[in-house]
């Protein structure tokens, strides 16, 4: 159930609006017993993401990318600004409306080694969101889990059900994390450096999978990366983030072909792998 104050008017083609959002962390000084706010991790950030697109958030370590993702997911509170997902005012969501928001937006985490509960079997891992959201009976859950696992390239799904994360490779674990993210059929997925812990050939397979999910299910992606080559291959538009601020936003090819900010120019100059991912999207589109 969504209350009136959670609703705003939004154009149908924009799924997410982040407006002038600020987040600074509190630093405690145990020796003095006091605290102070650090300079903002997210500093007056505004981005708009269109329905069905892959939008890249590109920046170096510590630029504020993960913090922004956590604010969008309402895992943390922001200090100022506003975030709207469709017609929902994310900052004001609570109770049932927060729960319903959490069905629509999912995250694929960075580290497939740490993100899965070692005590949950693969079936339990992928089924857990269905249990939390009380979707389906046992039989229906088996069917939904199987579909999510097949979509994520874990076939035959039944071969994986009773295994545990430590019995899988890094690439298989990341597929489990992806199956878990898609099992609720979200409209929006935040993928936070989903391939940074994987070797190149497995990364390419995971990118193909993300392409397939985007194309077949019209899922909108916020793709977080420090790797411009990966963003170039996957994202229609990108925002470059540096020290908490968005310093450049636009069509990916336009920014890479004609960067304006010195930081973007330096990021491009530092990329060794601009060629390797180039044709993946085209290849997977043919399949
Ligand atoms: N819980 C926290 N408490 C205090 N400071 C934090 C916290 N989380 C992040 N920060 C700080 O906020 C800044 C942005 O961090 P964030 O993790 O968002 O960057 P990032 O761009 O995702 O980096 P990386 O690519 O290395 O993951 C950093 O200076 C970081 O130290």
UniProtKB/TrEMBL annotation:
InterPro entries: AAA+_ATPase, ABC_transp_ATP-bind, ABC_transporter-like_ATP-bd, ABC_transporter-like_CS, P-loop_NTPase
Highest taxon, organism lineage: Bacteria
Pfam families the record matches: ABC_tran
UniProt name for this protein: ATP-binding cassette domain-containing protein
Species in which this protein is naturally found: Desulfatitalea alkaliphila
UniProt KW keywords: ATP-binding, Nucleotide-binding, Transport
GO molecular function per UniProt: ATP binding; ATP hydrolysis activity
PROSITE patterns assigned: ABC_TRANSPORTER_1, ABC_TRANSPORTER_2
Biological process, per Gene Ontology: transmembrane transport
Sequence ranges assigned to domain ABC transporter in this UniProt record: 16-268
């Amino acid at each position: 159930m969504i209350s009136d104050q959670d609703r705003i008017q939004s154009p149908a083609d924009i799924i997410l609006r982040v407006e002038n959002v600020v987040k600074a962390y509190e630093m405690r000084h145990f020796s003095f017993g006091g605290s102070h706010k650090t300079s903002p991790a997210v500093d007056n950030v505004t981005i708009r993401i269109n329905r069905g697109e892959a939008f890249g958030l590109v920046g170096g370590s510590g630029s504020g990318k993960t913090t922004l993702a956590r604010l969008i997911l309402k895992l943390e509170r922001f200090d100022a600004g506003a975030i709207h997902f469709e017609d929902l005012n994310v900052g004001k969501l609570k109770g049932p409306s927060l729960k319903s928001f959490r069905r629509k937006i999912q995250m694929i985490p960075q580290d497939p080694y740490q993100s899965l509960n070692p005590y949950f079997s693969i079936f339990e891992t992928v089924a857990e969101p269905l249990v939390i959201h009380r979707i389906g009976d046992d039989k229906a859950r088996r069917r939904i889990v199987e579909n999510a696992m097949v979509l994520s390239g874990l076939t035959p799904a039944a071969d994986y059900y009773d295994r545990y994360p430590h019995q899988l490779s890094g690439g298989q674990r990341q597929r489990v994390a992806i199956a878990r993210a898609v099992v609720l059929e979200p409209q929006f997925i935040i993928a936070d450096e989903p391939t940074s812990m994987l070797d190149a050939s497995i990364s390419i397979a995971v990118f193909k999978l993300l392409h397939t999910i985007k194309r077949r299910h019209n899922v909108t992606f916020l793709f977080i990366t420090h790797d411009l080559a990966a963003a170039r291959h996957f994202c229609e538009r990108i925002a470059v983030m540096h020290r908490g601020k968005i310093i450049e936003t636009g069509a990916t090819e336009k920014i890479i072909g004609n960067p304006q900010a010195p930081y973007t120019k330096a990021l491009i100059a530092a990329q060794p792998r601009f060629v390797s991912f180039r044709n993946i999207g085209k290849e997977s589109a043919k399949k």
